[in-house]
């Protein structure tokens, strides 16, 4: 009996990092969107400082949602609105979309 074929392991999920050198969440998301082939539309009057290195494993969309969720209780809560068809990420104040 021939050995069973070995299935290839799925490719590892990408890791998205927010780095202290980014200085702000907006700068980190600008870097992420450029890397993923998206465009960022930051529609907030405020930005949020980066205080520590953060790594998120998963798709671009999953990582963006994780960042938005982490800022839900910020002074100006954040919502990420993704337009997958034209690859635009809008960052807006939650409730204003």
From TrEMBL:
Top-level taxon in the UniProt lineage: Bacteria
Domain Toxin co-regulated pilus biosynthesis protein Q C-terminal: 15-93
Pfam families: TcpQ
Protein name, as recorded: Toxin co-regulated pilus biosynthesis protein Q C-terminal domain-containing protein
């Amino acid at each position: 009996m021939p050995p069973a074929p070995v299935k290839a392991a799925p490719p590892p999920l990408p890791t998205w990092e927010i780095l202290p050198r980014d200085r702000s969440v907006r700068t980190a998301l600008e870097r992420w969107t450029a890397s993923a082939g998206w465009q960022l539309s930051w529609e907030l009057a405020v930005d949020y400082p980066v205080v520590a290195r953060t790594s998120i494993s998963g798709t671009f969309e999953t990582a963006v949602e994780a960042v938005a969720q982490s800022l839900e209780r910020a002074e100006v809560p954040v919502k990420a609105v993704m337009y997958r068809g034209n690859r635009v990420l809008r960052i807006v104040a939650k409730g204003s979309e």
